[in-house]
């Protein structure tokens, strides 16, 4: 089981929320008080909810559930990408495209198109194209890889989605709710925790706070192994 440190939560500033006037009243159960016009989280409750969320993620991975990581804000995007690549699970670190979940068939078509473009390039099918045409194709591939590269091997709708900043990624939240995908989400004081199955009430803006929670998620998912055998098994089907 992943150990969550109360001292570390304090050290990384996980207790600092947004300015009081920006709050969502539904976050009140997790707020300790105010400090200089800023809401402060009750870190005892933060730790409890964080442990619950991490245990659920670890259990889901162990059961072979497909987990998607989402975090596109600048403090999180590189960390989410690294986590997804390290763990071998799908991730979205650039903009969450509308329909990623609810219109997965169309997303699948886009992924196949990306694969086709890359295969054609590798086979040298564009060698007789003009320099400008080749450049346009390269740019198209680059853009598609940036937007879809993290989910290129996601062969079905995920069972669980981890979202860093559910307020910013509300589109992902709504799509997950519509499809019954379980949501684990970091919720700051401006978020609605009732939209999330496993809310993690804490600062989702401070770099160190973001780094800490993503490191814990990585540890929870790395400590279980579903893994490559099940992924390979799915790919063979």
From TrEMBL:
The keyword Hydrolase does not apply. Belongs to the universal ribosomal protein uS2 family. One of its GO terms (molecular function) is structural constituent of ribosome. One of its GO terms (cellular component) is cytosolic small ribosomal subunit. This is Small ribosomal subunit protein uS2. GO terms for biological process: translation. CDD domains: RPS2. Signal peptide: none annotated. Keywords: Ribonucleoprotein, Ribosomal protein. The keyword Ribonucleoprotein applies. Pfam families: Ribosomal_S2.
């Amino acid at each position: 089981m992943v150990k969550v440190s109360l001292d570390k939560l304090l050290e990384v500033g996980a207790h600092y929320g947004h300015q009081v006037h920006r709050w969502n009243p539904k976050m009140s159960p997790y707020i300790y008080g105010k400090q200089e016009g800023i809401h402060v989280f009750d870190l005892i409750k933060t730790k409890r909810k964080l442990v619950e969320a991490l245990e659920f993620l670890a259990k889901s991975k162990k059961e072979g559930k497909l987990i998607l990581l989402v975090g596109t804000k600048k403090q999180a995007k590189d960390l989410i990408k690294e986590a997804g690549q390290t763990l071998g699970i799908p991730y979205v670190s650039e903009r969450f495209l509308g329909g990623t979940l609810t219109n997965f068939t169309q997303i699948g078509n886009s992924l196949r198109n990306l694969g086709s473009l890359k295969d054609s390039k590798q086979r040298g099918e564009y060698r007789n194209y003009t320099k400008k045409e080749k450049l346009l194709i390269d740019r198209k591939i680059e853009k598609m890889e940036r937007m879809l590269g993290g989910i290129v091997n996601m062969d079905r709708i995920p069972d669980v989605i981890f979202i860093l900043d559910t307020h910013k990624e509300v589109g992902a939240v709504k799509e997950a709710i519509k499809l019954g995908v379980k949501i684990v989400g970091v919720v700051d004081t401006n978020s609605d925790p009732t939209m999330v199955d496993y809310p993690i009430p804490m600062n989702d803006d401070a770099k160190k706070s973001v780094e800490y929670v993503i490191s814990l998620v990585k540890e929870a998912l790395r400590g279980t192994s579903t893994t490559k055998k099940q992924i390979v098994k799915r790919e063979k089907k």
